[in-house]
Amino acid sequence: MKNALVLALALTPALVSAGAPAAHKGGIEEQGYAWHAQEGEKIAALKLKGNVKKGKEIYEVCAACHLRSGSGRSDGTFPQLAGQYSTVIIKQIADIRAGLRDNPTMYPFAITLSDAQELADVAAYIQTMCIPRDHGMGSTAPALLKRGEALYKKECTSCHGASGAGDKARFYPVLAGQHYKYMLRQVTEIRDGKRNANPDMAKIFKKYSDKDLDAVVAYMSTLTMPGALCPEKPVGKKK
């Protein structure tokens, strides 16, 4: 699979130059259709049983950005994948491949998957990863977190749960344990109409100020991701 990674990286400039398919734009109604669409590659991949061994080979392409651990980068450039639901992975990659989600950075790598089976395979492997113990955090100022907690409990728990665990069946991602800077960028883009999202969430964020977004995301970054944590790194012996 190393050859696949070399090929993907080599093709990236050409693919970016050619451009990803234009992302679907429009009103909330059209975005809602894109979000809830029950057809296409997403549905095909969800019906397939993922092969973890093959998924691990495919993931070598992903590791270039998301790292072998699936931890992503705390500066927000790439999200943590480890601990995320396979359904969410499948939906987001399928959306990018179909042009339903505009992500020029991810697109050249997403289209290296040959079919729905490979999409199911890599999602199955990602779900086996242990959860990193550390992630990028936001401010821990008490007043900010109190404001963020109030907003989260008022408008986010019905979908993402009190602990930020999300909902696998409804494609709601795990928020707990995700990098603060990545989440802040995503919710800002959703609010500003720059990425497709659940239309209900888009309506909520539409009325949020930058300070509101910062507060709720800072609070979300304090939540603990559910699942198996990676083993603690052994402490070096003192001489």
Largest sheet: none
CATH evolutionary superfamily of the largest domain: Cytochrome c-like domain
Percentage beta strand: under 5%
- CATH C-level class of the largest domain is Mainly Alpha
Q: Which runs of at least 5 residues are low in confidence (pLDDT < 50)?
A: 1-18
The CATH topology of the largest domain corresponds to Cytochrome Bc1 Complex, Chain D, domain 2
Q: What helical percentage do the residues reach?
A: 40-55%
Structural class designation = mainly alpha
Q: What is the CATH architecture assignment of the largest domain?
A: Orthogonal Bundle
Q: How would you sum up the global shape?
A: globular
Number of continuous helical runs:
12
Mean pLDDT: 87
Q: What is the distance, rounded to the nearest whole angstrom, between the alpha carbons of the first and last residues?
A: 42 Å
The number of distinct structural domains comes to: 2
Q: Nearest-angstrom radius of gyration?
A: 18 Å
Number of strands: 0
Order of helices and strands: HHHHHHHHHHHH
Concise summary:
The chain has about 240 residues and is mostly helical. It has helices at about 1-20, 30-35, 40-45, 50-65, 85-100, 105-110, 115-125, 140-155, 155-160, 180-190, 200-205, 210-220.
